[in-house]
Amino acid sequence: MGLKVADPSPAPRPGPVTLEGRFGRLEKLQPGHARPLWKYFEGQPQLWTYIGAYGPFDTESDFAAHIERFAGSTDPYVYAIVDKDKGPVGYFTLMEIRPAHRSIEVGHVMYTPALQKSPLATEVQYLLAKYVFETLGYRRYEWKCNALNAPSRRAGQRFGFVYEGTLRQFVIAKGRNRDNAYFSMLDSEWPKRKSNFERWLSRENFGPDGKQKISLSSLNADTQVT
């Protein structure tokens, strides 16, 4: 028998919140996000390489239809990522939502070049994790990806997710085999991860040239096992 869970009641489902940060915000995806997002997705077919269910899109109308469908979904529940200066630059979701077990996953992480490697790319992961653990009260937060997707594996560990293993021949995606690499963050680990996020995001961690002084990967070095 496992340890008794202090609160075994179901967790709330995610909702249409707006979470503000220093570099931008996340907000519920709406059909109106399609046009500004297309500006950054157009001509970037490589962004869809490891997305198993959809994409790439050749036209703005096809992309807009995808965004409209996605905006109406409850699982995955989709949030637009909005840069304070550039507007919408990507989206991600909360998915595999299991309130009875207080388990949830961040997935469909779509970062355009305008978002990649920016402070906002990290800040929104912090804002979403904080929402998952502190507002909704989930106890397990998952990150999983195609096992061949090395950038996603590195990103998950950089954000503080711990590698758990790889499930082989998990699905057939776009006619190809996909093994899934699994990572997780637990509620008991969140205080440390939160502190690391906040230390990295602090103004003191960036020089006049905007470069970081200490990396988030080094702060979360205990996750760097593959």
Please supply descriptive tags for the structure shown above.
226 residues, alpha+beta, Aminopeptidase, eight-stranded mixed sheet, 8 strands, globular
3D architecture notes:
By secondary structure, this protein is α+β, with helices and mostly antiparallel strands. It has one domain: Aminopeptidase. The protein is built from six helices and eight strands; from the N terminus they run E-E-H-H-E-E-E-H-E-H-E-E-H-H. It has an eight-stranded mixed beta sheet with strand order 1-2-3-4-5-6-8-7, with helices on both faces. The protein starts with 18 loop residues before the first strand and ends in a 7-residue tail after the last helix. The model has no long low-confidence stretch (mean pLDDT 97).
Set down the secondary structure blueprint.
Layout: E1 19-20, E2 24-28, H1 34-41, H2 60-71, E3 77-83, E4 87-98, E5 103-111, H3 119-135, E6 140-146, H4 150-158, E7 162-173, E8 176-186, H5 190-201, H6 216-219
Parallel strand pairs: 5-6
Antiparallel strand pairs: 1-2, 2-3, 3-4, 4-5, 6-8, 7-8
Helix pairs in contact: 3-5
